[in-house]
Description:
mainly alpha
Amino acid sequence: MSRSPFAHRRAANQADFAGPDADREAIERLARSARLANEQRGGGRVADEVLQRNTLLIEAAQAELDELLGEVAKLRGVLGNRKKVAKNDGCDVDAIVQALRLKKQAGTGGSEPIVTRHRMVGRILGLLGHPLGTQFKLFGNDEREALGGDEAEAAEGARH
């Protein structure tokens, strides 16, 4: 993308409005605003016991989090190794992960949203004329399920 022939003029005009010390003025304005906000909250003066109590609570929570993050890192390593073993055994790891994700999703919210989305994908593929959308039992279709086996095939044949 090329620059506008007037870009240099625009930059010069904006610099004229900003003034020579625009950055310094902006920093001073931010510092002044922070100082005023701090004064409104009590001037930044907190009792020592309150400060110490909160520091110790935060330190303990941070230590616990660091410990758990170490465990997470170890478990991610184990998971990665298990995926490598499965891949070396000839398994489709992506399909396994997707199936486990769907299993978890169905366990928490039921399978209806998953089935509805799956059918919608099949419908869209059919509308696009993609071969996957015409596969007979790949994507459940209400019309196909309502009809029996021979009737469904007849309906498919009549449609094409």
